[in-house]
Amino acid sequence: MSVEQGNLSVNTENIFPIIKKFLYSDHEIFLRELVANAVDATQKLKHLSSSSDFDKTATSEVGELKVKVAFDKEAKTITVSDNGIGMNADDIKKYINQIAFSGAAEFVEKYKDAPNNKQIIGHFGLGFYSAFMVSSKVEIISRAFSAKEEEAVHWECEGSTSFELEATTKAERGTDIILHVAEDSEEFLESFRLKGILDKYAKFLPIPIEFEGEQINDPNPLWTKSPSELTDEDYLAFYKKLYPMGEDPLFWIHLNVDYPFELTGILYFPKVKQELTASKDKIQLYSRQVFITDEVKEIVPEFLTLLHGVIDSPDIPLNVSRSYLQADGNVKRISSYITKKVADKLQELFKNDREGYEKKWDDIGLFVKFGMITDEKFLEKAEKFALVKNVDGKCFTFDEYNEKIAANQTDKDGKKVWLYAADVQKQHTFISSAQKRGYDVLVMDSMIDSHLIQRLEGKLENVSIRRIDSDTADKIIAKDEVLEAVLSEADQTKVKEIFEKIVTANHTVEVQAMPTDEMPVTLTLSEFMRRMKEMAMSGGGGMYGMDLPDQYNVIVNGNNALIQKILDTTDEATQLQLAQQAYDLSLLSQNLLEGKALSSFVERSLNFIK
């Protein structure tokens, strides 16, 4: 074969979007693409060896298939070798010289009825050209599976549209891709750098990958196996392989579907703490065992990104760099399927082991709540297994809780009122007052409970959810009964005027008839304003509400003996001192008194005792 020279045939229709997107955003992708191509070549040979097209007399036995990655720091080369199907001159002209012509796509179409043909990874025919992102020159030395040693070919290109193609010799079947690394990419001529890239992208490729004399991958990862042959220990060990520093997961789901799309994987439920963002981006997306990304929010609903594990599907459409997902019908179907499987798993755990499920609730509750807030379909299913927990530590489903409180916590308009505390310690006084009336109080103290409350009030019929300190115990659940007032209207007006002189300017004062054993002064915060501030602080509703001051309602218990004592005192200074004392006690009971205000309270108390 004489030396042939020519120009690369560029299909502008196909190359234009690649130019527009700069092919790949991360240069390290070159190694993933070349190794994936090498794996393709071995897979093609494996499939072809069982077909009538395979000439068993023209080549050696298939033998052990593998891919090798090597580098020479002095020569400034990186070599990716395989002993797969190989190429002859015509193959190189067709698959290399014509940019964006996918050999893998053509091969799959030709052998579409062969078993496991979707193991062929390539799709766009552009992966090879990622080599030029880090190389000043690229060589190919290849011998086709049916060729003799002297029929091998050598191709060379220096990153332009010009190439050289000539005959050479090669003892073994397969292909060597030799990269002459450019000066600005010499970072890739380090063992740790190449090993890191291979660990990231090639850890579970289906053909052994050898680097520096060692196999660095597991060709048969757990998600490719049948759940029936796996133990709990297998799943936990695989989790440790994925997340060496992570706590053991609570439980897991093994995904395996082949119609109407192909999807395998394992999703683990970690212990979800208060920091939602710290738990995200832990699901790894693979396509035919090639790692693609750990940003899967376009495949699964946002709340499912709190899970950990692996999803592998050849039916998730990718753009040419395989770095960004392209939404289509399959993505939506896959997303719906995963959501359903997660909901079904939670329902199964709740139904089969209620006690065990309740013990796990503190670790999975935030995940379930996040799903209910962000995904309507999940919300509908979650109503069967979502729990609320009261201050006594008892758990209830929504229906169970409505039944529990129906007799005592239904207001005059027929609405069942759920009372909750966001901070049991700070709101202890309010909880005690409510419990004196036989009311039950829930604990809703997670960072997203304010959003969940809004969602539930719109979903649950005839239910109102109110924080325990949003009003006094007698008014928080509006009843027809009215407690008789000890003070006359004139006295109530006088008491109000006294307290208005000592409270903070943005606080409002109201005198109410309350039981005599209740606090002389109680501070409540408007339910509406509090929700606005909470949602703003947790990232909802923009920034509106962030800068609004806390507008507390100062509720003076007109039936408390201390209030009567204030009225009976003729000295105005003493009246104000007693009122201040009662007001400070209320602040102190709700942990609202601190710093300078607390020091002043102590000083006033000591002076009052003297």
UniProtKB/TrEMBL annotation:
Keyword Signal carried by entry:
no
Gene Ontology molecular function, alphabetical: ATP binding; ATP hydrolysis activity; ATP-dependent protein folding chaperone; unfolded protein binding
Assigned keywords, A-Z: ATP-binding, Chaperone, Cytoplasm, Nucleotide-binding, Stress response
- Which CDD domains does the entry link to? HATPase_Hsp90-like
For ATP, which residues are the binding ones?
A: E33, N37, D82, M87, S102, G103, T175, R322
The keyword Glycosyltransferase appears for this protein = no
Which family is this sequence assigned to? Belongs to the heat shock protein 90 family.
Q: What is this protein called?
A: Chaperone protein HtpG
Which species does the entry assign this protein to?
Bernardetia litoralis (strain ATCC 23117 / DSM 6794 / NBRC 15988 / NCIMB 1366 / Fx l1 / Sio-4)
